[in-house]
Design goal:
The chain has nine helices and nine strands. With 284 residues, it is an alpha/beta fold. 46% of the residues are buried.
Length: 284
């Protein structure tokens, strides 16, 4: 253990595909102070139970198909929260997400007999272009401003140790019943739908940002290896929009959180070196 780590009071475990959840985790962490952010993708291979060793533990991730990403569900099945005093989760979503908190809570309870004290769902820009165009311009900025206000309120509640857990949400729960099981079963291989167009510049951004290390370039061409979370980081971060998911993402626009960079995405999977691609594309 690194010197000083044991002094921190809060650990926030996060997963992100396009930056919303990382930006949310950071904002909450800044407000709470003394907070360590741990990317779940960087510890997914670690053996045995995950023991946070702090009083307050948070999980921040996106909503996928009215549940949580497969990597998060697996993580919730491995973390030991038995000695934590306060546990919270924040899910970021395009519109509907309370059932994702219920999935997380149940998985935690089944695993370690202790669930969430608080759970919050925050609306942020959508990143699922097969379904709808991600918001752009002022519409996007307004959603982000409102999310910041909500995140500050949430951080206040967490700081006070409030118990605030979402009630049963019928529509979200129905959507979960209809779609989530199928999503989890198929998600690893949904990457067979990805297509690379001729305008690909072999810049490696797609493989740099992929949280599971699922993309390898062969002959300069990205290849997906069926270990996908369907986070769409590859598609959204591609600087020339060469990546499509079937025919449903063409002309649909792209989204990434304005504060999150390629390097942040590399750090997520435990790779702290500046990527060549990042130096070229993303030096703001
Ligand atoms: C595969 C997939 C499924 C999604 N399902 C939902 C959903 O059921 N409900 C919802 O409100 N948003 C859904 N979204 C949108 C994301 O939850 C939302 O944009 C989130 O803030 C993205 O967070 P990130 O930038 O940290 O990856 C989905 C996105 C993806 C990629």
């Amino acid at each position: 253990m690194q010197k000083g780590k044991e002094k921190r009071r809060t650990k926030i475990y996060y997963f992100t595909g396009t930056g919303n959840s990382l930006a949310a985790a950071r904002r909450i962490g800044e407000s709470l102070g003394e907070c360590e952010h741990i990317p779940i993708a960087s510890i997914k291979e670690a053996e045995g139970k995950i023991e946070p060793g702090v009083e307050r533990v948070g999980i921040v991730c996106p909503v996928y198909d009215a549940g949580v990403p497969l990597m998060i569900r697996d993580f919730a099945g491995r973390i030991d929260l038995s000695s934590a005093e306060y546990c919270f989760a924040v899910v970021t979503m395009a519109g509907m997400g309370a059932s994702a908190l219920h999935v997380l809570d149940k998985t935690l309870r089944d695993n370690c007999g202790r669930g969430l004290d608080s759970g919050f769902a925050v609306r942020m820009p959508g990143n699922f272009p097969p379904l709808s165009k991600p918001p752009q311009g002022e519409k996007r900025d307004k959603i982000l401003r409102e999310a910041d206000v909500k995140l500050d309120e949430i951080a206040g509640k967490i700081g006070e140790g409030r118990k605030d857990y979402p009630a049963f949400a019928p529509v979200s729960s129905l959507l979960k019943i209809l779609t989530y099981g199928k999503f989890i079963k198929g998600v690893r291989s949904y990457d067979s739908e990805f297509i690379v167009k001729d305008n690909c510049i072999s810049c490696h951004v797609c493989s740099d940002v992929c949280p599971t290390g699922n993309i390898k370039l062969t002959g300069g061409w990205p290849k997906w290896n069926h270990n996908c979370e369907l986070c769409f980081a590859c598609l959204h971060f591609c600087p020339v929009e060469a990546i499509q998911w079937g025919k449903r993402t063409e002309g649909r626009g792209r989204y990434r959180h304005p504060d999150i960079r390629i390097l942040d995405m590399k750090v997520q999977k435990g790779d702290n070196e500046r990527a060549g691609s990042e130096l070229i594309q993303d030096t703001t």
